[in-house]
Specification:
With 73 residues, the chain is of the alpha+beta class. The protein has one domain. It has 1 helix and 6 strands. The strands form 2 sheets. A 3-stranded antiparallel β-sheet has the order 1-6-5. Strand 2 and strand 3 form a beta hairpin. The protein starts with 11 loop residues before the first strand and ends with a strand.
């Protein structure tokens, strides 16, 4: 069995709307230019299937608030 981890470096934003816009753009680009699809699993946004089910890749995006008032996405 093999696993692939894809690490996405968080970006810092001053407003949640900026973070949401960035996430929407990222999802749109992945849907257009890669083998990712919308995930039917409630905890994930995107999924990429492989021939072996054990190698599927699931992605989840989220926004985290910082004490400084900025947000990470």
């Amino acid at each position: 069995m093999s696993y692939k981890n894809e690490v996405i470096i968080p970006s810092e934003y001053f407003r949640r709307t900026e973070a949401r816009a960035h996430i929407q753009k990222e999802i749109s680009e992945r849907l257009s230019y890669s083998n990712f699809f919308r995930s039917t699993r409630p905890d994930y946004d995107l999924v990429r299937y492989t021939e072996e089910a054990t190698c599927n890749t699931f992605l989840r995006y989220r926004i985290l608030s910082l004490k400084s008032g900025n947000v990470f996405a």
